[in-house]
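Worked Example 4.2. Consider the chain below.
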Amino acid sequence: MKLVSIWTFLILVALNTFFNVFLFKPRVKSYPAKTFDGRIKGFRPSEAKGILKQFKDAGKLDAYLEQEWKIDLIYPLIYTAMFAVAILGLGAPRWMVLLPLIGMVGDYVENFSVIGMIVQYRDHGTVPYPLAVLASVGSRVKWSFTLASAAVVLALGVWWLIRVVRR
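Applying the procedure from the previous section yields the following structure tokens:
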């Protein structure tokens, strides 16, 4: 891994940690349920209204919307760049950068769909089923490709360490 890649990667790891520890974690602790994007196994579209009801009943629907607008539209760029820099820096074929990029697209589909569901539920008490389907599919794509990216980075990291030790 090149020195520039290492520093870029470490800066992105620091940003990723900052978002998780100081921006997401305090908010999530106060929520009545897991957010849509915090459900690693995804969620069924039929569950969307019930999840949003829990947030509304707890008076946290607007806080959740604010999180989606202000934090979760930036965060996918950070973790995607972190994975992409690691994948390329560790010598993987360039096409492997598609893994985190597809995950990011899924995350944005999920995020914008969740924003739409929150606004619709807050203003009208309904959740359009097609929007819930989009959010659900986006969530599963995000988690599948993000976990695949993490696995690739882990495997490449182990491979890189073995090569360094053998020198």
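The chain has a mean pLDDT of 96. The CA atoms of residues 117 and 136 lie 12 Å apart. Compare this with Example 4.1 before moving on.
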